[in-house]
Structures are given as C-alpha cells and as structure tokens.
Amino acid sequence: MGLLDSFEKGLERAVNSAFAKTFRSGIQPVEIASALRSELDKKAAVVSRDRILAPNTFIVHLATADDERMRTLGGALADELDTLVHKHAKSQGYTFAGPVSITLERDPQLSTGTLRVNSSTAEGRVAWRGVLDVEGKRHPIVKSRTVIGRGSDADITISDSGTSRKHVEILWDGERAMVRDMQSTNGTLLDGRKVTEAGLPPDSTVTIGRTDIVFHVVAQAAPGRPAQPAADATRAYDMRDGGPLR
What we know:
Residues 146-195 form the FHA domain. This is FhaA domain-containing protein. It comes from Microbacterium terregens. Residues 224-246 are annotated as: Disordered. This protein is 23% helix and 34% strand. The strands form 4 sheets. A 6-stranded antiparallel sheet has the order 8-7-17-16-13-14, with no helix packed on it. Strands 10-9-11-12-15 form a 5-stranded mixed sheet, with no helix packed on it. The longest helix is centred in the middle third of the chain and has 19 residues, at 74-92. Helix 1 (6-19) runs antiparallel to helix 2 (29-43). It is built from 4 helices and 18 strands. The chain is of the alpha+beta class and 246 residues long. The two termini are 39 Å apart.
C-alpha cells in the first residue's frame, strides 16, 4: 500500500489540520502513529479462531528534544493517536484485554529523530467518565451537577447571547446522566426535541441557543493486573488524560 497506509494518512491529515505545525527535524507525530501501528501488528497474537489479541498499553520512548516538541501538541495528539490505534485494531480484527493507554516518556539515551515503543497486554477494570464537548473543547464532568450558560458563575461558560446566564444543568452519578433546563428564556433541546428534564443517553446532543453540547461516556483504565510483563519504565506523560510531564 506504499509508504503510508490509511492509518498514517489519517494522522497526517489530522496533524496538518489540527496542529498546523511542521517540525524542521526530529520525530514527526505521524512517525509515532506508524510505530504504534507496527507494534500492534508485531505483537498481535491469535488466541482463538475468532479472537486476535493485541497489546493495549504502550510506552513511546523519545529523545529529549523530540519529547519537548510533542508536549507542545498536548491533548490533541493524544486524542488522534488513541482514535487511530482503535481504528487500526478494528480494521485488522484485533481485540484488547482492557482500555488502551499510550504514554510518552523521555529517554536521554535516544538520539533526536529516533524512538522506541514498548507494549504489553494489561487486563484491567474499566472506569467510565462523562465528558461534554462544547464549542470545540472537551470538558470532563468532575461534579455531580454541572451548570452551563453564558454567565461567569456557570461551571462551563459559553459565548452565546441566545442562552441564559444559567441555562441548563447536567447531572451525572458516574453511570447515568440527566439534562435539566434551569427555567431558561429560550428553552433546551435534546436531539432536536424540547425538554425540561430528561435522561441523557451517551452521544446525545443538547442544544441551547446556537450552541450544541455533545455528551459522551468514555472509558479510562482503572487499576488492574498485567497479563504480560510491562516494560520497566516510569510513566512520564499520560496521553489519554493529557496530563503534564512529571
């Protein structure tokens, strides 16, 4: 299929559009994607006639200069890599033993422009987290009650004059969600239907004024036991959470 298959091409397009950044030397984000794809293919193992198990925990070792460049991309790179790992696994018929985890780690012994990937298959419980996509930004739901509106005292403030200061609230108990209109002037829509209070299914859209709020439930790794020995490395950057280096 050439030097770049659909996996790398997908990330290359994402890098060009979402990151709008070209590095003059060193590792490119598309090379990390290619290395992860290769690691999936190399470590995938047939465990039954209808199941091919692939690693789900990845540590990407980068030279100091490359690691610094990747940090400037923040959570956008994390989201793209995670999405494309899942897409490649689906296209190849791979399954995972638990949630996918991708970690960047600085390795001073590596030369700029080189990388190394360690992977393992880790079983684990799945913890579910509610998130809201609003105006191009993802907001994890960290409270049982999240107020959204144009007022500065709302938990999530939006720049939409068609909304009330406290327009709508999202209720989340860790498993289920509800949406409740807060006696707003222009009302609240759930998937195009006007509601005062309703259950909020995953991937549904709440509309207030001209603003769409998309509710998702995403998986994140909870403590579990490794099914295969994990690489002997210290986590430096949690890509799924977009956390800072430490």
